[in-house]
Write a structure and sequence with these properties.
Layout (H helix, E strand, L loop, with lengths): L2 E5 L4 H12 L3 E6 L10 H6 L4 E5 L5 H8 L4 E4 L6 H6 L1 H21 L4 E7 L22 H20 L2 E7 L2 E2 L12 H10 L5 E3 L5 E2 L2 E2 H12 L8 E5 L5 E2 H12 L6 E3 L14 H7 L7 H14 L12
Parallel strand pairs: 1-2, 1-4, 2-3, 4-5, 5-6, 6-11, 7-10, 8-13
Antiparallel strand pairs: 9-12
Bound molecules: nicotinamide-adenine-dinucleotide (NAD).
Nicotinamide-adenine-dinucleotide (NAD) binds next to helix 1, strand 2, helix 5 and strand 5.
């Protein structure tokens, strides 16, 4: 039974990954500072799996703490980050510290702590707004926001640590992940939970821009699957980056229509100004992840949306998480 550390394990994607790792019989240690993560995301797991799951509360910006927790782990999944474009536009220094320095701390701790492999949560935002679709991993990156830059720097650090120090790393570029337990309330929230929670209350979804922006929305179970596959991917996959997505594109107006269909409603969107740093279109080529990781999406888009709607319908009374980055 191997020992996995999940940084950001109390966050949206992190808690799903922890669930997947526990189901696959791993022992797991969560590192989280609860800046955007929630205790409620992992409380049930801490109770149910107290023999195999431990929480270490602290920040990846603290190198001593990270070294202590990471030493002796087999795999580190590094998801901790300030994950917002808008926040990074307002506070690029905070994004830089948590996302770049934090990643460097994790890689140093893994290199020196006998870790076999680090799997890094990279971001499709690295591609920027270049017109060519679908995005392939060999395209030159063009980050448009401090957030995108920090995520790109993290994956480059991973590549360099594999090259120079022989630490196995795999960077997974996620495309617009959605699913249960994603934070819906913050001003910075992602579009799917914002739309769903408003539409459940019969409020019109707010669209920044004209709604023609399109995304490769990826249900969170697909991301968990990619991470689990990355654990046992061949060594040729290390030091590399992979698109992790659905491989389908939906614009925001079509997303509203799909949610209206699932909810049995007919709510028109309310349009507001575009936001700085947002990209227009995004679609992944997932061929490389198929070839080297054996990845393909297991849950298609509409099914993922239906599962997500169901979850928010049954969990409407969650208390908001804190929004202040520490
Ligand atoms: N959600 C997406 O669509 C998406 C897309 C691409 C990449 N990603 C990446 O996936 C990762 C997880 O994102 P998410 O959507 O689950 O966001 P999230 O905010 O739910 O999760 C981030 C977690 O990291 C924790 N954290 C932040 N800074 C920390 C620090 N310094 N030390 C310890 N913990 C810290 C937060 O408390 C939170 O639990 C991030 O690295 C993000 O950049 C997400």
């Amino acid at each position: 039974m191997s020992l996995a550390v999940v940084t950001g394990g109390a966050g949206f994607i992190g808690n799903h990954l922890v669930r997947g790792l526990l189901a696959a019989e791993h022992r797991v240690v969560i590192i989280d500072n609860f800046s955007t993560g929630r205790r409620g995301n992992i409380l049930d797991l801490l109770v149910r799996h107290r023999d195999r799951l431990r929480l270490e509360e602290g920040s990846v910006t603290d190198p001593v703490f990270v070294r202590r927790v990471v030493r002796g782990a087999d795999i580190v999944f590094h998801l901790a980050a300030v994950p917002s474009v808008q926040k990074s536009v307002e506070h690029p220094d905070i994004s830089n510290e948590h996302n770049i320095t934090g990643t460097l701390n994790v890689l140093l701790a893994a290199r020196d702590g006998g870790v076999r492999r680090v799997i890094y949560a990279a971001s499709s935002s690295a591609y920027g707004d270049t017109p060519t679709l679908p995005k392939t991993e060999d395209m030159p990156p063009e980050p448009l926001s401090p957030y995108a830059l920090t995520k790109l720097a993290g994956e480059q650090y991973c590549r360099i640590f594999t090259r120079i120090y022989g630490l196995e790393t795999i960077a997974l570029r996620y495309f617009n992940v959605f699913g249960p337990r994603q934070e819906p309330t913050s001003h910075y929230a992602a579009v799917v939970p914002r739309f769903i929670t408003r539409m459940l209350r019969d409020e019109p979804p707010i669209v920044y821009g004209d709604g023609n922006q399109s995304r490769d929305f990826t249900f969170v179970d697909n991301v968990v699957r990619a991470n689990l596959l990355a654990v046992r991917a061949p060594v040729e996959a290390t030091g590399r980056v992979f698109n992790i997505a659905c491989g389908e594109r939906l614009d925001l107006n079509a997303l509203v229509a799909a949610l209206n269909r699932i909810l049995g409603k007919d709510l028109p969107p309310r349009f507001q100004d575009f936001r700085p740093g947002d990209v227009m279109h995004s679609l992944a080529d997932i061929t490389l992840a198929g070839q080297l990781l054996g990845y393909s999406p297991i849950i298609p888009l509409e099914k993922g949306l239906a599962i997500t709607v169901d979850w928010y319908r049954n969990n409407e009374n969650r208390t908001p998480a804190t929004e202040t980055p520490s």
